[in-house]
Structure formats: structure tokens, C-alpha cells
Amino acid sequence: MDEFVKVSNLVKNYGNLCAVDNLSFSVRKGEIFGLLGPNGAGKSTTINILTTLTEYDKGSVSVAGLDTVRDRNRVKAFIGTVPQDIALHPFLTARENVRFFASLYGLKGKKLKEEADRALAFVGLEEKGDVRTNRMSGGMKRRLNIACGIAHRPGLIVMDEPTVGVDAQSRDLILRSILTLREEGATVIYTSHYMQEVEEICDRIAIMDRGAMVACGTEQELVALATDRKTYEVEGKLPAGLDRSGLCGRILLLPDVKDARFTEREGRCVLEVATALEFDGFMQLLQLLEREKVTLRGINTREPNLDAVFLALTGREMG
After folding, report:
1. What does the pLDDT profile of the chain (319 residues) look like in tens digits?
2. Is CB count within 10 Å lower at the N or C end of the chain?
3. Can you list the domains of the chain with their CATH numbers?
4. Buried b (16+ CB within 10 A) or exposed e, 245-263
5. For residues 259 and 112, what is the distance between their CA atoms, to the nearest angstrom?
């Protein structure tokens, strides 16, 4: 896919504070690109630069081949923004809010009405068009926030924490709507503190820390950067007199096994077997345990996720 957004050697300073430090990345056309980082990592500054709200000191930024400084007005017309803070007029109806924001992009007359109604239907608010915003729930306001950002059919949609504080039903609807936007050809830059959301919808993920890019790639590529193993937790009844150390030694002889040990958890004996991420010896492990007369009660797989990757790469938890 083509590079739709390209950020090259971007630098932004606020006095002695370097908010963005020689940042480079690209977003492909038609993908959902996750932008993650702990508080103070430079995400908000980067987003503000992308959406032409903030000027930068060095580097270059382009959207659909347009320079965000030289072609600022054309770029602004091409972008839809869904901010973290609710950006709605409380005393206007849902339909009036969408029409107002869409009109800022030049829509008028019949086209304005049609696109506003389409955007409301897209986020499941077609029957709430005449309801004033101050009478809506938090989840409905979040969905209306999205409708206002997409009514002009932008090619690039920047979403900053669009599910903060919403109920589970609204969150699921918002995530489904983002996937639909991608299917319709939009490119999405998405920030969130909810790792499960990022894992669910993002094609690629960038992790920032202290203004710089720490890592960028698919979830699987990022996991491979942070760790080379996963863990099987085997719980079972052990035969009397079992040589635990000897069993662990035999397990370690299996291909791609990194470690094997017994641990005690609240009176339960658990065998932990760490393996390579790509492990083909699971059946061999089961056969070995059967030969050793271990009666299995359950096996859980503990695989690395984005939370673990984030902690390994930044030294901090998300939040």
C-alpha cells in the first residue's frame, strides 16, 4: 500500500523541552494505525502537528502527498478529527451539531443534509437526530463526536481516545464503526489507553516514548521485539515419588523449550514450561507427561500481549 501519511525527522520544542524528537513514521493508505505512548510521550503534539493545529521546528509532514505547511488549507479539508474532549454544542440537537461541523468543510444545501443524516445513521443515532446534546448519555455523545468528524467524508481520520468513559455497548459500536471506515477506504490514526482495543482493530502500531519512536510494526512484530517466548501452565496430579527435577530436565530436551519449573500457587502445584513463540512440540510435551503418569487437570497458555510489550519497551505501564 502507498504511504498516505509521511512524517520525516520531525522535531518540536517548547523552550527547553523537546516534545517530539526526530520522529519518523508512515501510515499506509487504508490502514488503522495505532499511536501509543505513556503520558508525556509526545502523542498529542504529534497529532496536533498532523492536523495542522501546531507548527513544528524541523522535519516534514505530508498527507496524501500534500505538505501540511505549504498546502495547509487543502490538508485541513482532507482530515477528520475526533478529539478526546467532547467538541459539541450542548444546546444544539445531534443533527444540528453534525450539520454545523460539516458546513465548515463547505457542505451546503441538500448535500449537507444528506451527509449529516448518513453520519448519524453510521454511528447508530439516526433516531436521535432531534435530541439536544445536553440530554444525551456519555456514550451517545462520543458517537455523535465521531459523526461530526466524518460527515465530510475525510480521507484521513484522526481519533484521539474516542472510547474514554463509554459503556461496553457504545465501545463495541464505536470499534465496529472504525473497522467499517477502513473498509470504505478511509485511513485512521488511532490513540487509546485500552490495549485490547488496539490489539483488536489496529493493522500496525507505533510506540512513542519521550518524543521519540521506540518501535513500529504489527502486534506480532512488536511482541517479537520484546520477548522470544510464551509459557504453558500445566496443572495436574503428580504421581507419588515423582522426580520433579528430572522431569524438568527431560522437558528441556524437547525442541524449542526454553525453561521448565514447578511452582506452588495457593496449595496447587503448577508446571510452567516456557517455549519459543512458534512451538511445534506441544503434543510431545503431552506425551512426555503421560509417560510420567501426570494426570492433567488443565493447561493454560500465557502469551505476551501489548501490555507486556509496552512495559518492556518503555519501562512504564500504559496509563
Report:
1. 478 999 999 999 999 999 999 999 999 999 999 999 888 899 999 999 999 999 999 999 999 999 999 999 999 999 999 998 899 999 999 999 999 999 999 999 999 999 999 999 999 999 999 999 999 999 999 999 999 999 999 999 999 999 988 888 889 999 999 999 999 999 999 998 888 899 999 999 999 999 999 999 998 888 887 777 889 999 988 999 899 999 999 999 999 999 999 998 777 889 999 998 889 999 999 999 999 999 998 999 887 778 878 887 787 766 5
2. C
3. 3-224 (3.40.50.300), 228-303 (3.30.70.100)
4. eebbeebeebeebeebeee
5. 63
